[in-house]
Amino acid sequence: MNFPQKSMYATLIGDVVASRMAESQKEMLRSLDAAQVWVNEHVDAVQPLRPTLGDEFQGIYENVALALRAALLMRLRLKGVLDLRFGIGWGEVLTTVPDQAPLGQSGAGWWAAREAVEEAATLAKKSGWPRSVRVRVRGLETSEAAAINALAICQDQVLSKMDRKDCQIAIGLFEGSRQDELAEGLGVSQSEVSRRQLENGPASLFRAYQSLRELGS
Prior knowledge:
CATH class of the domain at 8-139: Alpha Beta
Structural class: alpha+beta
Helix content: 40-55%
Shape: globular
Oligomer: single chain
CATH topology of the domain at 8-139: Alpha-Beta Plaits
């Protein structure tokens, strides 16, 4: 894919937290690949998520809201299986070796995403910061970046408290599934789905991303 000069995109870099501790590197990569395929079917991308080296994967989106959505769906899909960290950058993307994308690409967007994912790793270990930090954004105007990073901090904390069933309910909201369908799939009552949706975080995540989309972020 050729990117014209001065074209601005939301670049996304993801990796696995403590990937060397995984019991099976093969199973880790298989889980990542399956989740990427699923997310690529559910989020429009300029360049779909693809593995790069080791436990890292990358994608490109028209705007930051879509990149954030892709990151969230990856985490919901793999909750309890793999812990993921993301950096999102806003900026120019240049392609020097089109046939090797996302390898062979450069530009401010990728530099910002790299700085962001490294920042996420640093902040999660920093005194006074929640250990749940997993997503950071760079490259936007200061006020925009501050607002979205504030959302990400709260999102990360909410998601850290959710279990697998909560995450499945959140995915159902994004897919437009009915509560009775989710209840049947999870083997719980519809009232349990409703309670989890409203009290445990799924509705909060879904409404936050609806607001981002409405703002055209």
